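The record is given unchanged here:
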Amino acid sequence: MIRWTLPLLFCLSLAPARAQDTSDPPTPKDDGPSLMERGADMFLRGLMDEMDPALRGMEDALREMEPELRQLIDMIGDLRNYEPPEKLPNGDIIIRRKPVPPAPLKDGEIEL
C-alpha cells in the first residue's frame, strides 16, 4: 500500500491546480416583489382595513362640524397673531393675542 501512495501523490502534484471560480453566482430572476415587500404590503393593507371604519366616522363628524369650524376660523383669523398657549397655575389655558406693532411714521421718520 505504501508503494502506491508515493506515486499517487507525485501524480496528483503534477495535475494542474484549479483556481476557485470567481464568477458571480447566478442571480434569481426578478419574479415580482420580494418576501419582505409582500409582507409589508399585507401589513399595510390589514392596517388600512382596520382603520377604514374609524376614518369614515371621523369624516362624517368633520362634515357635521364644518360650519362651526369655518365660523371659528373666521373669528380667529391668522394664527400668527397669537402667542403660544400658556397653562396657568389654576389649570386654565390662555392664548394671548400678540401686541399690534406701532404704525410707521410719515416720510420714513424714526422716533428716537
Remarks:
- The chain has a mean pLDDT of 82.
- Helices lie at 2-14, 35-76.
